[in-house]
Amino acid sequence: MWRELYQDSHEFLGPHLVRGLDAFPLSFEHIADALYGARTDTGPSKLNYFRGYVGGREDYSVAEKFLRYDLAYNTIERSIADAFGGERPELGESAGLIINGSLQWSDRLQEVSSGHAHQIARIYSGQQITYDVTLFIGAYGSTPFGVHIDDASHRTILFNLGPGDKGMAIWRNQDILEQFGKVRNIIDPTSIEAAPEQFFFKTGEAFVLPSERYHVGLNNTLSTTAAIVVDIVSDGKAVAREAQSLGASFDAMPESKKADLRLITLEDLSRLSGLRNSSNNFLRYSRARRPFDMSGVSKGTILRRSKLAGVEVVPLRQNSIIYSRGYHHIFEGVLVPTSFSSLLQANTLNVGCFLAALPGGEEVISAKLLLLKFLIETGTLEASQ
Questions:
Q1: Which domain of life is it from (predicted)?
Q2: Contact between residue 272 and residue 316 where contact means Cβ atoms under 8 Å apart
Q3: Smallest Cα–Cα separation from 79: which of 90, 95, 94?
Q4: What b/e sequence results for 196-229 when a residue is b if at least 16 CB atoms lie within 10 Å of its CB, and e otherwise?
Q5: CA distance 283 to 289
Q6: Phi-psi map region of 368: left, alpha, beta (phi>0 left; psi -120 to 50 alpha)
Q7: Domains, the chain, ordered by start
């Protein structure tokens, strides 16, 4: 599907309306699972990924209220209809939600998305990409933050799950620039003198959005739209992201680890960013890390490779960087990438075999156990207890 769509839409640059799709890359079941995961997330930052609106104005309470609804697979559509649809939507007139980062809350969504992300990564061979899912839910008339232009590196494909139509109004950039100059947002679309080109797509249809053109979403009736956002990651962006990720824990590291990291070049950082993305199946967000109690683990404990296992190993001078599902761990010892990858290829192994395969003896057992804990908490390995 993706290669054909890439060709038909002029490399995902659109505008391109798609009818007669055999299947969407996700369903209401995946949305329900992500929302339920968000509800059970006790972290302090989860609501940063939600933008709620009522009557065209931002309302931070919309997300909190909606997450209290019944989010089961068989009731999610009814809950959305009650909250945002009909003549008297329970969450207010012209209410809606825009949700980023939903991948972090759902293993089901990660699993279904990883296959699509790998297909798209093959299309962009030689370039780094990430795959993201943004949800637009409600009947808020038009995008509340107005006519805007997206990041030039984005390629956005919108899938309308319904029940109502989804629309998109798109202007020529030159018309906007002549009237307003170089702007990012125009809150009131009616203030634009030039007429836009409009596209409407029904339930089961998709639209490839020209992200680099000024546009605004339209939904006068209730719809749920999933936007697949492919970000083509430049070298500069890759270097900045990886430097931030590796540097976050730099101050707390022992000197031996700091010494190795100081040898990493800008070119290395770009390459490492690609390995981090690869370890997470090219998904923009990692699943939430889940704390694991190691007190019940013995040498006979069985380890299973998860369905979404993802590991990349980078040997340094004295240490190794291990990427697992988008996270990183610095191991005190030099690992051979091929040998370590082969170790994790087995569907099952026990803890004793895992520890014995790592360099060093009992004197570095704590470092080995920390690596094992990391791989379990990030979801590459599952431990039977």
A1: Bacteria
A2: no
A3: 90
A4: beebebeeebbbbbbbbbbbbbbbeebbbbbbbb
A5: 15
A6: alpha
A7: 1-232 (2.60.120.650), 234-384 (3.90.930)
Phi and psi at residue 279, in whole multiples of 5°? -65, -20
- Alpha-carbon distance of 215 to 147, in angstroms, equals 5
CA pair distance 29, 43, nearest whole angstrom: 23
Characterize the bridge pairing of strands 154-163 and 223-233.
antiparallel
DSSP type of residue 287:
P
The helix (run of H) or strand (run of E) holding residue 271 is helix 266-279
- Secondary structure of residue 47 in the 3-state scheme: helix
C-alpha dihedral (252, 254, 259, 262), degrees to nearest 10: -10
Summarised one tens digit per residue, pLDDT across range 269-306 is 999 999 999 999 999 999 999 999 999 899 999 999 99
For Cα atoms 162, 163, 164, give the angle at the middle one, nearest 5 degrees. 90
- Statement: the pTM of the whole predicted model exceeds 0.70: yes
